[in-house]
Amino acid sequence: MKLTAAAGAIVVATLTLTACGSDDPFAVSGEAGTVVIGTANFPESEIIGQIWAEALRQEGFDVDVNSGIGSREVYLGALQEGSINVVPEYSGNLTQFYGGTPADEAALAEALPDDLEAGDFSPAESKDAYRVTRQLADERGLGTIADLDKLDQITIAAPPEFAERPYGPAGLSDVYGIDAAKISVNPISDGGGPLTVQALVEGAANVGNIFTTSPALLSNGEEADVVILEDPENLIPPQNVVPVIKAGSLPDGALDVINSVNAQLTTEDLVEMNLRNVGPERAEPSAIAQDFVSSLS
């Protein structure tokens, strides 16, 4: 088992969850044989979790979904202490979180603690990305992440945990040589959603951490004119959707169902479903999931 600073954060999160007792909102273990799916605190994770839930229900499994648990430290803590059985993850970030070098399924399996295991990688990929307004890109000649060094100050609208991620401020300095002293994070906990976009457009930040599959919409539904900076040094690793499981906790056949539906999920599907959720339609993740699984029949 590999122990890293990230693993220490998991231990703290797990102890915190356990100490909360029966009032703990994460303590959803379900009845015997029930698959409990956890999701992170951003819409795409909820949509993927609901897709798995719908596919499992259609195959006769009892399923609960524990939605919006929190950041990676929190939901992996819940997974390891057993209040959930499986959670949607992203291959590269998860491998890095446990101290591994992102590459493939074998690299992730090697990095995971002994009590966790991963399912099959989906062809669908959702990567973190650095975005700036088109106006700033044109004015300052910004085309790649390296070009951020042209700015006097770099303020990144991003989730709070972004500040400690390998592809966050430390990665900008280590990989692209940008002076750490001029990098700061404006913490916004909406997973690159409208509040993050608003901060970018209104000048509370000049860079935004927004997933490649997320539409850059303002709170009124209007699309912001932003661009993704290219990443020639591959600071941000491949991010295939992958189920992560508490080892031995799923009923027989459940992982096969999840792997099967995951194999049919594409990056384009994620873009379309995210737009349905946060765009004018405001479709619920459960409805989006039902439509997607029905389309596979």
TrEMBL record:
GO terms for cellular component: ATP-binding cassette (ABC) transporter complex
Signal peptide: 1-21
InterPro entries tied to this protein: ABC_Gly_betaine_transp_sub-bd
Keywords: Signal
Keyword Lipid metabolism on entry: no
Gene Ontology MF terms: transmembrane transporter activity
Signal among keywords: yes
Domain annotation ABC-type glycine betaine transport system substrate-binding: ranges: 34-294
Protein name (database record): ABC transporter substrate-binding protein
Species name: Corynebacterium sanguinis
Upper taxonomic lineage: Bacteria, Bacillati, Actinomycetota, Actinomycetes, Mycobacteriales
